[in-house]
Amino acid sequence: MNGGSRRRPTSFDVAERAGVSQPTVSRALSGSPAIAEATRRKVIEAAEALGYFVDERAARLRRGSTGTLAVVVICREGDSASSINPFAYALLGSVCVAASEKGFETLVSFQARGQDFFGHYQEQGRADGLIVIGTTTNAPAWEHFRGIGGDTRRVAYWGSPFDELDWVRSDNVAAGKLAAEHLLAAGYRRPCFLGALNTPQVQFTERYEGYAQGMRDAGLEPCLAPTVKAATREEEGFRAARGLIERGLTGPGGFDAIFAACDAMALGAIEAFAAADIQVPGEVGVMGFDDLVAGRFSRPPLTTLTPDPAEAGAALVEAVLEGERAEARRRVPVSLIARGSTARC
Asked: What's the distance, CA 122 to chain centroid?
């Protein structure tokens, strides 16, 4: 030893201190049932005294596992981290927790530009599988990751715009139907869906289909307020709601409630109604989907629908780890959170 530096203890040092062979140390610390409990305790005490820790990564690699799952969050090109849908962060956190509970670490990457697209973590021996989540507005990213899956690769997708992939999604049709039923039960008679259809955002179309089914089940015709692409979802919702107001559709024979395809659009619609002195929920009810934190503190607080991020994260991790044993496609149930934006007196 030089300059007071300490040599890192090895399994041979542990063996010498415990009075056993080095293979016995390896088997004892790996949990082998062939080792007597008294011997195992003696080895553990020796390892702790020396400050010896098992190299878990090396041990996993010897067993054919990295002990890591890769997670790619697809972003819109040009967006900052603060612009990402907060639900994606909630889902990411849930994936990390679910992976940890299975004994896996997570390797996270945020990707938006073509030159940054990468998903071959399994081939490089850096992860045992890949989970892809994020915005469907980045079509080039989804086209890239569409080709990542294969017979030997374990990949799961949240909200994929491609039905042939192994995806996990919210039960969007059930959510749309629940939205229509909630608004009608609250006393609104002409709720309208606000969102774009036939776009890469498949979830929006599914939510409209559920809403339309709920309306027809009640003997009513569905109504669509289409959005046009803008810089943000809030702006899309604001413009669509303002268009309805300008066409005079809030009066007799028009709409009296909005079910927006996502919370961000709903918040934009609330802003448009406020600018036009239209009272929410008195004159127009508004609800969304996602349960963004901003919706909890809007005025009035936003009624919304949401899948359980914890359940969604667990489903994604299971889809990757179970491989061929997993269901190719899974729906996560949604729940209604009723707040002031639809609380008609």
From this structure: 21
